[in-house]
């Protein structure tokens, strides 16, 4: 049996990982999501260890996206005995911003004031509850998609009347009070094996909602600057708590400092968080080496006699 299978959708994003696996001589195979099918009656997983690298933004690249297909496949392979990294449980959180916010709350972390609905007609009433300016967000998004800021009730009412407010592929919408991020800065804490690995600050975040820090993402966002950042110990502990509660092996937890009172507000859980561009320059090390070390340990564990 193959040691590792990488389930992926975006080949350019995965090039650094694929290269690191080849350098280490790992026995691995790629599984492209776009044309993937599986037999639910087949109890053989594709590898001892399966690494899920599905991006929510795949809905922007394929009309017939694989989000819910992958949820079923990962659950099937877990049931078949594979060690699935970022499996069905964390993917179910990645697929649902409303569940992410509830998770942050259970972890004792502050979140933006939010209401969740499934009818467009409820959006103006909920916006009045949370206050303007207001963000209307699709429950499933990616790369900043499905988010629109409205400044006033008449602007939002017109958009609702024309059917132009975001809803998303699952018909669930978030109505969220806009949080002015102090200094236009977003902090992303990256976890590996459920523990804090590093954090970055994305400066100039107010210029876009697409805050992916990888090489292929930053090319069209020259206003975004990325730097290493050291969060306070309590916020690192909070991010690790979220990861443990969701079963997240590898991914990013994002927060901002509310400029109105200085309170950290957690708002995003990203199981397909790309490592930062130019990592050695920005961080002083390449996190792909740490990732492959982790994958190799999981492979060894699965190959060890029971």
Structure description:
It is a single chain. The chain is α+β, with helices and mostly antiparallel strands and 306 residues long. The chain folds into three domains: 4-89 and 290-303, Rossmann fold (3-Layer(aba) Sandwich), CATH 3.40.50.20; 94-111 and 179-284, 2-Layer Sandwich (D-amino Acid Aminotransferase, Chain A, domain 1), CATH 3.30.470; 114-177, Dna Ligase, domain 1 (2-Layer Sandwich), CATH 3.30.1490.20. The protein is 33% helix and 25% strand. The chain contains ten helices and 13 strands. The chain has a five-stranded antiparallel sheet. A four-stranded parallel sheet has the order 2-1-3-4, with helices on both faces. Strands 5-8-6-7 form a four-stranded antiparallel sheet. Helix 2 links the parallel strand 3 (49-53) and strand 4 (83-85). Helix 1 packs across helix 10 and helix 2 (67-79) packs antiparallel against helix 3 (88-94). It is globular and about 65 Å long. The two termini are 17 Å apart.
Question: What attributes does this structure have?
Answer:
33% helix; globular; Dna Ligase, domain 1; four-stranded parallel β-sheet; 306 residues
Would you kindly provide a brief summary of this structure?
The protein has helices at residues 11-24, 67-79, 88-94, 97-106, 123-130, 153-161, 215-218, 233-246, 279-283, 287-303, and strands at residues 4-8, 28-32, 49-53, 83-85, 114-117, 134-138, 147-150, 173-177, 181-192, 195-203, 225-229, 250-258, 264-270.
């Amino acid at each position: 049996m193959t040691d590792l299978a990488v389930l992926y959708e975006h080949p350019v994003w995965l090039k650094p990982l694929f290269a690191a696996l080849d350098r280490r001589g790992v026995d691995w195979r790629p599984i492209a999501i776009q044309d993937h099918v599986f037999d639910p009656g087949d109890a053989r997983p594709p590898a001892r260890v399966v690494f899920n690298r599905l991006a929510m933004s795949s809905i922007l690249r394929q009309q017939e996206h694989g989000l819910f297909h992958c949820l079923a496949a990962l659950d099937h392979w877990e049931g078949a005995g594979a060690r699935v990294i970022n499996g069905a449980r964390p993917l179910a959180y990645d697929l649902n911003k409303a569940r992410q916010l509830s998770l942050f709350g259970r972890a004792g972390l502050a979140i933006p004031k939010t209401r969740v609905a499934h009818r467009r007609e409820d959006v103006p009433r909920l916006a009045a509850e949370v206050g303007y300016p207001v963000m209307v967000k699709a429950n499933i998004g990616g790369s900043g998609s499905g988010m629109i800021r409205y400044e006033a009730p008449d602007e939002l009412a017109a958009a609702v009347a024309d059917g132009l407010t975001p809803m998303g592929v699952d018909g669930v919408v978030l109505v969220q009070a806009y949080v002015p991020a102090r200094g236009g800065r977003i902090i992303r804490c990256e976890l590996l094996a459920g523990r804090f690995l590093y954090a970055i600050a994305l400066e100039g975040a107010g210029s876009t909602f697409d805050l992916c820090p990888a090489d292929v993402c930053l090319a069209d966002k020259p206003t975004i600057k990325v730097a290493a950042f050291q969060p306070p110990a309590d916020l690192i502990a909070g991010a690790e708590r979220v990861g443990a509660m969701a079963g997240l092996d590898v991914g990013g937890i994002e927060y901002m400092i509310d400029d109105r009172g200085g309170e950290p507000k957690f708002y995003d859980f990203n199981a397909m968080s790309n490592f930062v561009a130019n990592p050695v320059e920005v961080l002083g090390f390449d996190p792909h080496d740490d990732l492959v070390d982790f994958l190799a340990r999981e492979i060894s564990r699965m190959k060890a006699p029971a």
